[in-house]
Design goal:
heterodimer, A: alpha/beta, six-stranded mixed β-sheet, four-stranded antiparallel β-sheet, 14 strands, B: mainly alpha, 11 helices, 77% helix, 0% strand, globular
């Protein structure tokens, strides 16, 4: 890891009395494909907007590409940003928006923009107000990518994109990432984080509650136990997320597996599967009130 | 320059409409002047005998029967009030409009510092005001020439300079407010323009309220005063300049620290 693409240290942002983020500590390494997971209002967008200089932190420090976030212009020169709700100037066509974006950066991005539009099947001749949400998103994606940034900050990037486009979009991101571009994306779609990201952080109520490689986040020692048999929750100390459907029982178990085997040996079990919970299950648990490790 | 060009491109329709409308009204007023001139003796005496109403609009000090008197009143009504509306709307929507339309995020993540954005936006508003005023001025003097009257260059130029400065002042005040709000604020802009205009009317009505002329830009952009004195009131201009600078300073100060919504 060559250094930090993003670093925050006790980053705090309050809107009056309302919490945006609270003592947020986050490190995204250069070259990471990083997922930022959190429910609505957890502070994902506040974090991103603070990093880009759109809002000022109440306290704490943050740097992007080893530059303090006060150096907005130098940061923006090397960053591509896709907002969650890409809004553009009405009356302008897609190609005008792309050209304006390139001109504002003082770069000629025509060839790269054409390539991206081709891959994303974006009709740049339509006025932005005539574009669907997904196609507006594509315009935003091209704006974020066309100037070949070192760091991509993408706020819920796949909203509105159909599955084929999502696949193409992630192909582009993976290509960029292989070329050394750091990708930082926030998403609610945990399967795409699990599939594409190498590292991820979970934010809850303005603070990071877990940050690790996606593999490590999934390997928590917790198992999803599914079985067919007669068993009650009281019989299995430490079982969580208990669900029953007839004689089919499913629960999360993070205790001693030998103890579980002893318990199960005392009952009649017809079927048994032991699996790692997926990221979604783990994150849903993180979102829970107690916030215990899954 | 990219941002200024972009701003002007986005504003050109509105600028064209305002310039066309104000020019058309002024030119029409001037083109009907020869016909009205024949009736002017009776009109002038009627206008000057309307007491407070005459004072409010400066009809008691200007001779409506002369081209200058006629132009001073009409120009004040059309270019004064119309130009004030245009300038206030252009100023108030310059910065807040980006947030209202959700485009501030796009703009401010494109390699522009806040102060560069403020400078470009301000330049764009001022360029629009200058374009509008130059067009209106040229068409007005063209219309005066077309009706065969001698162009009173000094007085006409002073009137137009005064209205240009009035618009710059209102635009800058509204521009400063624009940096402090998150919504369009068109109502605020219109209220400021109308409010300033009515302050000057009130100041004309009673000597006790004459101090209001010091506050409102309509105080120095007052047709009857400019034509009768042949100059602009430097005291009032200085106050106007101070308010203009305050508006610009507020815009830079506030926008460079503002949380963008």
């Amino acid at each position: 890891m060559a250094g930090n693409a993003i670093h925050t240290e006790n980053l705090t942002k309050y809107y009056g009395k309302s919490r945006g983020v609270d003592c947020l500590n986050l490190d995204v390494g250069t070259g990471d494909f990083f997922g930022f997971i959190g429910p609505n209002g957890a502070g994902k967008s506040t974090t991103i907007r603070t990093l880009l200089g759109l809002i000022s932190p109440t306290s704490g420090k943050a740097s992007v590409l080893d530059m303090d976030i006060s150096r907005t212009k130098a940061i923006l020169n090397r960053v591509g940003y896709l907002p969650s709700d890409a809004a553009f100037y009405t009356g302008m066509r897609g190609r005008d928006i792309l050209k304006l974006s390139a001109d504002l950066r003082g770069k000629n991005c025509k060839a790269r923009a054409e390539e991206l539009c081709d891959r994303l099947q974006l009709d740049v001749n339509k006025k932005v107000e005539d574009l669907s949400f997904g196609n507006r998103k594509k315009v935003g994606i091209v704006c974020a990518l066309q100037h070949d940034p070192e760091l991509l900050i993408l706020d819920e990037p796949t909203g509105g994109l159909d599955p084929l486009m999502q696949h193409e979009f992630f192909s582009i991101l993976q290509e960029q990432n292989r070329e050394g571009v750091t990708v930082f994306l926030s998403s609610h779609i945990l399967s795409e984080i699990q599939r594409y990201c190498t590292r991820a952080a979970v934010i809850r109520e303005g603070s990071i509650i877990a940050c690790d490689s996606v593999d490590q986040l999934v390997k928590t020692g917790t198992r999803r136990i599914s079985l067919r048999g007669i068993i009650r929750q009281e019989d299995v100390p430490g079982a969580r997320n208990w669900s029953e459907n007839g004689d089919a029982v499913s629960f999360l178990y993070s205790g001693d597996i030998n103890e579980l085997i002893r318990i199960l040996a005392g009952i009649h079990v017809e079927e048994l599967t032991v699996a790692e919970p997926d990221l979604e299950e783990i994150v849903l648990h993180y979102y829970g009130k107690d916030g215990d490790q899954a | 320059m990219t941002l200024i060009r972009h701003e002007l491109r986005r504003a050109w329709k509105s600028l064209l409409i305002w310039t066309g409308a104000l020019s058309a009204f002024l030119v029409i007023c001037l083109l009907i002047y020869p016909d009205m001139k024949k009736e002017m003796d009776s009109i002038s005496s009627a206008f000057s005998a309307m007491g407070a109403f005459s004072s409010a609009f400066g009809l008691d000090t200007l001779n409506f029967g002369t081209l200058l008197g006629y132009y001073g009143i009409e120009c004040g009504n059309i270019l004064g009030l119309g130009g004030a509306f245009f300038a206030a709307l252009a100023g108030i929507s310059a910065l807040a409009g980006e947030e209202k339309n959700g485009t501030a995020e796009f703009l401010l993540t494109h390699l522009k510092t806040r102060s560069e954005v403020v400078t470009a936006k301000l330049a764009s508003v001022l360029i629009q005001i200058v374009i509008l005023n130059v067009c209106v001025f040229l068409l007005s003097v063209g219309a005066i020439a077309a009706i065969g009257e001698t162009i009173p260059w000094k007085e006409v130029a002073l009137l137009h300079v005064a209205f240009l400065l009035l618009q710059v002042e209102l635009a800058c005040i509204c521009f400063g407010i624009s940096a402090c709000i998150w919504r369009g604020g068109l109502g605020i802009g219109l209220a400021i323009a109308v409010g300033m205009y009515f302050l000057s009317i009130i100041a004309n009505l009673t000597s006790q309220a004459e101090f209001l002329k010091e506050i409102t830009p309509f105080g120095y952009a007052n047709g009857p005063d400019i034509i009768s004195t042949g100059c602009l009131d430097s005291g009032k201009l200085l106050i106007g300049l101070a308010l203009t600078v305050c508006g610009i300073a507020l815009a830079y100060f506030r926008y460079c620290r503002k949380d963008i919504r």
